[in-house]
Design goal:
Elements (H helix, E strand, L loop, with lengths): L2 H8 L3 H12 L12 H4 L2 E7 L2 E2 L7 E4 L4 E5 L4 E9 L3 E4 L3 E2 L6 H15 L3 E5 L2 E5 L6 E7 L8 E8 L5 E3 L7 E4 L4 E5 L4 E9 L2 E4 L3 E2 L10 H13 L3 E4 L3 E5 L5 E7 H4 L3
Antiparallel strand pairs: 1-2, 1-3, 1-10, 3-4, 4-5, 5-6, 5-7, 8-9, 9-10, 11-12, 11-13, 11-20, 13-14, 14-15, 15-16, 15-17, 18-19, 19-20
Length: 273
C-alpha cells in the first residue's frame, strides 16, 4: 500500500470534522432523510468500478454511510464528507461534499473527479449480494462498491493517530511518540501511553464500547516536550469512549455525545512499504 494511502487514512479522522460542518451549515435542496437502511450504514464500502472501468485497488477509495445522514470516505487521494438522503424505491441523493486538497497523481485526480460526478448526480442505489451500485437517472454515471471487511478490534495492533485533548480540540500525537492499544479477546486492553504502559479492561457489543479504570506504570519522561501531558489527556479521552466505528484499517472511538475521543491506525498499515 502506497505512502499516499497511509497519509490519506491517517487523516481520515479529519473528515469527521467536515461532516460536522456540513451538518451545521448544509442547506442544499436535498435534506437529510429520517429513513435508514442498515444494509448501507452497517458496512464500509470500497470503490471497484466507475462507469464499468476498474479503479485503483492500491490507493483505495471508500464510502461509509453514517446513521444520521452523514457520509464520509476517501477518493484514493483526498478525504471527503457529505450529507445524504434515501427514499423508497432505492432513491439516493448526496449534498455537495467537502474534501481535503492533497496533490494527486493524474490518474487519481481523474478517478476523484469521476467519483464526485457520480455522487453529485446520484439518484438511485441497489445492493446486490456484496455489491453496492449507485447510478444517475440515465445510468450514464455509475459506480460499483464492494463490502470492505474491517480488521478485527481484537488481534489488531492499533497505533494512535490523534485524540481529543479535553478542550474541544482533536489533535495529532507529538512527533516521535508512540501510543498503542491492543484489545485482547479476553476483554483486556493494554498498550503504551507514550511514556508509561497501561492496562485496563473493555466490553464491546456491536458499536458500543466501555473502557474500565486504567492501571499505569509510574515512569517520568521529559523528551519530547509535552509527552506527559499528552499521556494524561489520551488516557482521559480513552476513558470517555462509548461507541466505536471501524473503517477497515482505521478505528475511531467516540464519547457518549458523539464527539471523537481517539483515532487509531492499524500498525500493519504503517509498516507497509
Amino acid at each position: 500500500m502506497g505512502n499516499n494511502t497511509i497519509q490519506m487514512v491517517g487523516l481520515m479522522i479529519l473528515s469527521l470534522i467536515l461532516v460536522g460542518l456540513l451538518a451545521a451549515c448544509g442547506s442544499g435542496e436535498t435534506q437529510v432523510s429520517s429513513s435508514q437502511d442498515p444494509a448501507l450504514t452497517e458496512q464500509e464500502w470500497r470503490l471497484v468500478t466507475i462507469n464499468d472501468e476498474l479503479v485503483s485497488q492500491e490507493e483505495i477509495a471508500t464510502l461509509a454511510f453514517g446513521e444520521l445522514g452523514n457520509a464520509l470516505g476517501s477518493t484514493g487521494c483526498n478525504l471527503y464528507s457529505a450529507t445524504y438522503a434515501i427514499g423508497s424505491g432505492g432513491v439516493l441523493n448526496f449534498n455537495p461534499s467537502v474534501s481535503t486538497s492533497f496533490e494527486c497523481s493524474d490518474d487519481l485526480h481523474l478517478q476523484e473527479e469521476a467519483m464526485f460526478l457520480v455522487m453529485s448526480s446520484a439518484s438511485n442505489y441497489v445492493i446486490e449480494g456484496e455489491q453496492l451500485k449507485i447510478t444517475n437517472p440515465d445510468a450514464e454515471r455509475r459506480a460499483t462498491f464492494e463490502k470492505m471487511e474491517p480488521l478485527p478490534l481484537d488481534g489488531t495492533d492499533w497505533v494512535l493517530d490523534a485524540y481529543n485533548d479535553g478542550g474541544g480540540a482533536f489533535i495529532n500525537i507529538i512527533e516521535g511518540t508512540l501510543i498503542t492499544a491492543e484489545f485482547g479477546d479476553d476483554g483486556s486492553l493494554t498498550g503504551s501511553a507514550g511514556c508509561n504502559t497501561y492496562n485496563t479492561t473493555y466490553q464491546a457489543e456491536g458499536r458500543n464500547i466501555n473502557i474500565g479504570p486504567v492501571a499505569l506504570t509510574q515512569k517520568e519522561c521529559a523528551d519530547p516536550q509535552g509527552i506527559m501531558d499528552q499521556e494524561a489527556k489520551y488516557l482521559q479521552a480513552l476513558g470517555t469512549a462509548a461507541t466505536s466505528r471501524n473503517f477497515g484499517i482505521a478505528l475511531n472511538l467516540f464519547d457518549a455525545g458523539g464527539q471523537i475521543a481517539a483515532g487509531y491506525l492499524a500498525s500493519e498499515l504503517l509498516e507497509a512499504p
